Amino acid sequence: MSRMVRLGTKILGIEVIKRNTQIMEENRPGLFISNHQHNIDVFLACEILPDRTVSLGKKSLRWIPLFGQFYWLSGNVLIDRKNKRRAHGTMDQVGEAIRERNTSIWMMPEGTRSHGRGVLPFKKGAFFTAINAQIPITPICISTYNTGLDFSKWKAGKVIIEVLDPIPTKGLTKRDVGQLCETTYQLVKNKVAQLDSELA
Fold first, then answer.
1. Alpha-carbon distance 116 to 94, whole Å?
2. What are the pLDDT digits (tens) for 8-49?
3. How many CB atoms are located within 10 Å of the residue 147 CB?
4. Where is the Phospholipid/glycerol acyltransferase domain (predicted)?
5. Domain hosting residue 181, numbered range
6. CATH number at residue 30
7. Are strands 77-79 and 157-163 parallel, antiparallel or unpaired?
8. How many domains would you assign to the chain?
């Protein structure tokens, strides 16, 4: 899969600059979170995510021809966002699976694509999961595509992906979710702005 992704980014003319990716391997099992801009996020993430990492996606992804079936069969987790009770139950199961299977999970806590609007506020679901499982949160920051890429050119441009130091959750409780969410959001937002300034 990763080889196919690397080929895809070459075909699109995207140069991916990767920084500190070893941090993810050193902090497993864990929760990896990243900003969410476009469908190509999935392909870029596949370039850096370590083995035994699954992602969390909305249930409707299953119905996308070929991709949806492949996504589900690869062990990724689908949730029904419209049913909050069922979604919370799924998140609890995800936390248990992370601990029992030594598996990491990748989530995009904005909950929707930003499409060049900057890093949108994070939703709290990912942080509930991390605290329930008592696993570290490792932020992945991806530079804004509008800044570094131009698909009208043969060489579309550069994307910088930088992994930040993990944020521990041991000892935290549900009362800490709001602060944890906001702290992580500010870290990612500020780093993305810094990466964009490098590409401007």
1. 30
2. 677 677 888 999 999 999 988 899 999 998 878 877 888 898
3. 20
4. 30-145
5. 2-199
6. 3.40.1130.10
7. unpaired
8. 1
